[in-house]
Each structure stands twice: as C-alpha cells, then as structure tokens.
Specification:
The protein is of the alpha/beta class. It folds into 2 domains: about 140 residues, Response regulator (Rossmann fold), CATH 3.40.50.2300; about 150 residues, Alpha-Beta Plaits. The protein contains 10 helices and 10 strands. Strand 7 and strand 8 form a beta hairpin. The radius of gyration is 25 Å and the shape is elongated. The termini are far apart. Bound molecules: guanosine-5'-triphosphate. Guanosine-5'-triphosphate binds next to strand 6, helix 7 and helix 8.
C-alpha cells in the first residue's frame, strides 16, 4: 500500500511512550501516522494535512488540551472528523463531558491494542459514510462537479474574498454545443458520457483551488480565483481546444466530437457585483453561440 492510499491518523499525546506505542501499532495496521506532542502542534498538522479525519487525542496536554482541540476542529472545519479520546481519566462523568464536547469515542489508558484497532475501524466506517453523504449533498452525481447550490455558494465566497483582498476573480460559463443532437442521434447514455468527458477535460486543466460546477443540464460554471481576463480566457480556450480535439468512441458508430462555447467575465475587488458578473458571462456566452459556437467570448465590462 502506498502512503497516498493509506488512511491518515493524527495522534496527539504529551507522553512519548504512548506516542511510540500508538505509532508502532497504527503503522503495523496500515495507517499513515502523524504524531504531535501537544494540542498546538496537532492543530498545526491539521492545517497542513486537510485530508485528516481520524484522531486519537489525549485529554490533558500542554498548550491546547484535548477538549479544546476538539472544539477548534468542530468550529473551524465543516467536514466530519472522528475523534477517539485516549486518556488516563475514567468514569461516567468524564465520558459524558468528553462526548458532550465533540469526542466520538472514549478509551482509557493503558489501551488494549485489539480493542483500539476495532474502534478505529468503526471510525473509518463512519467517515466513509459521511464522505458519501457529503458527495451526494454537494456534488453532481453524474459528473462529480459541484452541484448548482454549491457552485453558487463557492461563487459567493470567492467574490467576497476577492472584495476583501482586493483581488481578481475570473468566471467562465460553458455550454456544450448542439447537445440535443447528441442525445437525439446516439441516445441519453452517450449524452451522459459526453458530459462526463467534458468535465474531466476541464478538471484536468484547472488548478486545485479553481472550482467547476454544474449550473444546469449542459451548462457549467468555472470559478478562477486570482485570474485576470487574459488568464481566464486562456484557461477557457485551452479547455475548448482539448474538447474539440477529443474523439469519443461509440460502439457501432464512428467516434464523435463535441464542442463547447463559453462566456468569460472578470471582477476586480468585488466590482462588478455577482449578479452583474453572471449577466456578463451569460451575454458573452450568448454571443459565442450567435457567432457560430465552439468559441470563447470575453465579456465587455458594462459597469455596475
Ligand atoms: N444526456 C443528457 N442530456 C441532458 C442532461 N441535461 C440536459 N440534457 C439535454 O441537453 C439538451 C440541451 O439542449 P438545448 O438547450 O436545446 O441546447 P443545445 O442542443 O446544446 O444547443 P446550443 O446550446 O444552442 O448549442 C437537451 O436535449 C437536454 O435534454 C443530462 O444530464 N444528460
């Protein structure tokens, strides 16, 4: 198993012997272990390892104790974490206090390895279920792009950030060309495949912090933080070229090609408003369709 495919676990304990025992056991069970000697160090690791979801945390630690660490996690990150508190404390009162403060499971030291192992497995199962729920709530199940609600949320967040930081924000509204013909000629399944291929091409051409979402049936919104009009246009054009070049194999037919048109608009330090920005994209997209499709049009700023 490569390190990339291993489940990550953060252990935080001020006792070096516990850390050593945990690291040895967890590594032999196939986990990728991150180790911290206090809550503050644990918090730093959380910031640099966003995929961490599973934690074994001591209660009494210097700087930030286990319960405070839990509160930070729950307050600052809106995805699910599974936290096992491994502590010298015992008894109902402590269990109630820990679990009322966001801890998911409670194990008293000294731990029994086999028991800890199955408790970690429970955590992994719950995290997997939560990830599946997150996916269905936030993503378009066909293409894996953000769904309409989420991409509009992201647009609002990025617009607010650009306003605050006085930075640029590029937005691209894509629409597949003559998509109805694809469905009518080859069936809905091929239409669905074309949507998936389209999205994978775009995802392969954007930066990790850019966001692609399905705005409507065959309309997709791409958010490009810190991109001026030249950069946003270039990214859209690069995607368009790759889409037009692709030959989609279809059984019983010659491979088909798909094309897309897009409108690009940019805001600078929150100007224009989201509403206007979107309108500009829409007008530019309409123009791209009118001019013959398979092209990108950069919106003309109209003032807000
Ligand atoms: N296969 C499939 N088709 C979809 C999906 N969502 C929307 N569509 C189809 O997309 C087509 C969009 O058609 P139109 O709005 O007429 O646009 P178009 O044919 O792409 O033409 P232009 O945009 O003018 O180039 C419709 O036939 C919808 O049924 C989907 O999830 N899967």
């Amino acid at each position: 198993m490569t390190n990339q495919s291993k489940v990550k676990v953060l252990i935080a304990d001020d006792d070096p012997i516990t850390r050593m025992l945990l690291t040895r056991n967890l590594s032999s069970w196939g986990y990728l272990v991150f180790s911290a000697q206090d809550g503050e160090q644990a918090w730093k690791i959380v910031k640099s390892e966003p995929e961490l979801r599973l934690f074994i945390i001591d209660w009494s630690m210097p700087k930030l104790n286990g319960l405070e660490f839990c509160q930070c996690l729950k307050n600052e990150q809106d995805f699910f974490h599974y936290i096992i508190m491994l502590t010298g404390k015992k008894g109902t009162e402590n269990i109630v206090e820990a679990m009322s403060n966001g801890v998911d499971d409670f194990v008293t030291k000294p731990f029994v390895a086999d028991e800890l192992r199955v408790r970690l497995k429970v955590g992994e199962r719950i995290i997997e279920q939560e990830k599946r729920l997150e996916f269905y709530a936030n993503k378009d199940s066909l293409t894996g792009a953000w769904n309409r609600r989420m991409i509009l949320n992201h647009l609002k967040e990025e617009w607010e950030r650009a306003t605050r930081d006085k930075s640029l924000l590029g937005v691209v509204l894509f629409d597949l060309d003559f998509f109805k013909n694809i469905n009518d000629s080859y069936g809905h399944q091929i239409g669905d495949d074309a949507l998936k291929v389209f999205c994978s091409i775009i995802q392969g051409n954007i930066r990790p912090y850019d966001k692609l979402g399905r705005y409507g049936g065959e309309e997709f919104l791409l958010i490009l933080p810190n991109s001026d009009d030249v950069k946003a246009f270039q990214i859209a054009e690069r995607c368009r070229k790759q889409i037009e070049k692709l030959k989609m194999p279809i059984s019983g037919h010659n491979p088909i090609t798909i094309t897309a048109s897009a409108g690009v608009a940019v805001c600078d330090a929150g100007k224009p408003s989201i509403h206007e920005l979107f309108k500009q994209c829409d007008v530019a997209l309409y123009q791209a369709k009118q001019q013959g499709r398979n092209q990108i049009v950069l919106a003309k700023p109209t003032g807000d």
